[in-house]
Structures are given as structure tokens and as C-alpha cells.
Design goal:
- The complex is a heterodimer of chains A (174) and B (214).
- With 174 residues, chain A is mainly α.
- Chain A has one domain.
- Helices cover 60% and strands 0% of the residues of chain A.
- In chain A, helix 2 crosses helix 3 and helix 3 packs across helix 4.
- The radius of gyration of chain A is 18 Å and the shape is globular.
- In chain B, a hairpin with a 2-residue loop joins strand 1 and strand 2.
- Chain B starts with a helix and ends in an 18-residue tail after the last helix.
- The chains are: A mainly alpha (174), B alpha/beta (214).
């Protein structure tokens, strides 16, 4: 769980930091960093993100209030989860939420591709995402989202590693 | 062994039972509980944020332009006033969404600005003469696009995109309304219908140019 790897005298008391923990740290920084950046773009311009959600045509026309709500809730969720992953706080829970979000995004992108819609993601504003995808949503964006999904899944399964605030725990009675 | 159980067993082994962190049992429940807390906090902040600065997903009522038929075939004229010209038919008050013919009447009158909401690479090869190119991306980051400095917000504007199911016109219309434009119309059939009707088309080869002028 999120407190995995904790030891009575801190993370180093378990021995040297394992390569696995370094890899998990890199994974956390990658996924958390991407989520934080994407969230700041969306929080800064919710109107554009709301248009983006509409363009996917997954929310019924008579449920625009859900689109409007999603335009605010999703970015804040990304920001909180991303920050928690970077810091390593409640990492497994944060990764579980990130996994759900990325699952939703993978479905949305896949649905756009199968319906042959001409939608530009706009997930990262005018910057490109980690895969440098350009133009309308296609297989590049799907691969990008699947990579992020796999990163979140790995963090849920293996935990944050010892280089995380989760790894610091109090000695009983201290 | 399931991952959570494995994590719990590893923890017990590493800590020799002296650790105050959670035990193996209930680890998954704790992860899920914390995940629900995270979602709840994000939802609460999102709801508060949405009340503070709501987004707009549909056009609010705008001041409609009117056209009046001259009674001779396609000859129509535009009238943004409510005055009726003696001897002519009743002015037609336009809906927000207008037909190709109504758009043409507005174009012929010269009393409306035309805005092409397609991407620059679509606008360049062909657009309605005098139409400005303005996409929703030009508003990104809450900045005001340069082209708006050339336009009078009180004049009628007609927005078009690729026609059919394109959302670009609607989105640009909403953004223009937020920018203070008061009379906004959308040519629903879009640019393809204009071309099919054989109306004149203008090309702009310099894609860095934002508008074709009025």
C-alpha cells in the first residue's frame, strides 16, 4: 500500500536504495509532472477545455452542465494527483485515481479514432505532449495515453518505492 | 500472491512487525478510501471554481440582424435597424443560425463582418472574400486575438466553418460573445455550401496573415 517500504528508522535503514525505487521515482516524476503540467493549462483556461470535452461528443447535448463541471473537476483532480505522485504522498491511492483518469482518456481517444472524428486534443495547450503528437487525435495520442496508463498501473502494483514521503514513517512510540 | 498482499508481506518482513504503518489486511481498502478522499477534494475544489468563473457552452440571445426582401429573386438587403422601408416586405429577423441565402444577403449588404473559424491551412487556399480568420485557439490562454482590434463589436458578424457537424463556428461565436460582440450569426451550412453555390472565393497565400480585410 501507500506506506509500503517503510521502516522504523527511515528508508535507508532497510539498506541501500534499490534500483527499483529509483525507477519508481522516475515513473512518479514522469506521470506526476505530465499531470501537473496538463492540469495547469486546463485550469488556466477552462473555457477551452470545456470546448475540448464537447468535441469528443461523449456527453449528451442535454447534459452540458456535466461538461461544464468536468471542465473544472478533471483539471483539479489531475493537479492534486500529479502533485501527490511527485511528492510521494498517498502514492498508491493517487496512482489509482490517475489510473482511472487515464483509463477514461484512453477510452475517449479510442472512441474518437473509431468514430473518425476530427478532434484536436489541446490537452497541453500550445505545447506538445510527451510523445510530441501533432494535429488531430490519432494513434500517436492513443500510444501516449496508453503509456501514461501503464505508468499509473505500475505505480498501483509496485507502489512508490522507498524514495517517497510515503517511505518515511514514525518509529512506534517515537 | 495479489500485489497488495505481496506489499503487505514485504512490509512485515522489512519491518519485523515493529512498523506502525498499515498491516497487510485492509491495505487495498485503505488505498481505495484515500482515492475516494482525493476525488472528493478535487470535486469540491472544482465545484467551487466553477461557481467562481463559469464556462459558457451555448450562445446567449444576441441582437439579431434583419434582412428585408426586395421582392426580386435573390435580391435581399440587410437592415440592422428595426425601421421598415416603405413599400417593401416585412423585415426578416434572423435567427442565430442562418442559411446560405441569408448569409449572402448580409454579405451583399456589406453591413456584416465575416469570420472564417477554420484552421489557417484551410482558410489560406480559399475563403469568403474579406473574411477574417479567427479560430478558438486564437483565444487560448484568455488572450484577446489581434483581429478583434479591427472589428466593431456592435456590427453583425457571420461565422462559418467547414459546415455540417463542425463545432468551430459555435465555439468562436461563444468566445466573441464573451468579448462583447452583440450581433452574432452562424452560417450553418459552412464554407462548402458557399463554394457549391458558385459564390466568389478569395485565397490568401501568406498564412501568417490573420485576416483578409473587410
Amino acid at each position: 500500500m501507500s506506506g509500503g517500504g517503510c521502516c522504523g528508522t527511515g528508508p535507508r535503514a532497510c539498506g541501500s536504495i534499490a534500483v527499483g525505487s529509483v525507477l519508481l521515482l522516475a515513473l512518479r516524476l514522469f506521470l506526476g509532472g505530465v499531470l501537473v503540467y496538463a492540469s495547469l493549462v486546463k485550469i488556466g483556461d477552462p473555457q477551452q477545455f470545456a470546448f475540448g470535452i464537447e468535441a469528443y461528443r461523449l456527453v449528451p447535448e442535454d447534459a452540458k452542465h456535466l461538461t461544464a463541471l468536468g471542465a473544472f473537476v478533471v483539471p483539479w483532480m489531475e493537479l492534486i494527483v500529479g502533485a501527490m505522485l511527485v511528492l510521494g504522498v498517498w502514492s498508491r491511492s493517487a496512482a489509482a485515481v490517475a489510473l482511472s483518469l487515464m483509463g477514461l482518456f484512453v477510452y475517449a481517444v479510442w472512441s474518437v479514432i473509431t468514430r473518425d472524428l476530427d478532434v484536436t486534443c489541446g490537452c497541453f495547450g500550445k505545447m506538445k505532449g510527451p510523445f510530441g503528437c501533432e494535429g488531430p487525435i490519432g494513434m500517436c495520442k492513443l500510444a501516449e495515453n496508453l503509456t501514461l496508463f501503464a505508468s499509473a498501473l505500475a505505480l498501483v502494483v509496485f507502489g512508490p518505492g522507498s524514495i517517497a514521503l510515503d517511505g518515511l514513517c514514525r518509529r512506534r512510540g517515537a | 500472491m495479489p500485489p497488495f498482499e505481496a506489499a503487505g508481506a514485504e512490509m512485515e518482513k522489512a519491518c519485523g512487525g515493529a512498523c506502525v504503518c498499515g498491516a497487510r489486511s485492509g491495505a487495498a481498502a485503505r488505498v481505495m478510501g484515500r482515492a475516494i478522499i482525493i476525488v472528493g477534494i478535487a470535486g469540491l475544489i472544482g465545484v467551487i471554481d466553477s461557481a467562481r468563473r463559469p464556462v459558457q457552452l451555448a450562445l446567449k440571445p444576441t441582437a439579431p440582424a434583419t434582412i428585408r426582401a426586395t421582392g426580386a429573386g435573390q435580391g435581399t438587403d440587410v437592415d440592422t435597424q428595426t425601421d421598415q422601408v416603405p413599400g417593401e416586405t416585412e423585415p426578416v429577423v434572423l435567427d442565430v443560425r442562418i442559411t446560405l441565402e441569408q448569409a449572402r444577403a448580409l454579405y451583399d449588404s456589406g453591413d456584416a463582418e465575416f469570420i472564417d473559424a477554420r484552421e489557417a491551412n484551410e482558410y489560406g487556399p480559399g475563403h469568403i472574400p474579406g473574411a477574417y480568420n479567427l479560430t478558438q485557439a486564437d483565444f487560448r490562454g484568455s488572450r484577446t486575438p489581434d483581429v478583434l482590434t479591427y472589428l466593431d463589436p456592435s456590427r453583425p458578424v457571420v461565422i462559418y466553418c467547414g459546415g455540417g457537424e463542425c463545432h468551430a463556428s459555435e465555439n468562436v461565436a461563444i468566445l466573441l460573445q464573451q468579448a462583447g460582440f452583440t450581433s452574432i450569426h452562424i452560417m450553418v451550412d459552412g464554407f462548402p455550401s458557399w463554394v457549391e453555390a458558385g459564390y466568389e472565393v478569395e485565397a490568401t497565400h501568406d498564412e501568417s496573415e490573420e485576416g483578409g480585410g473587410s
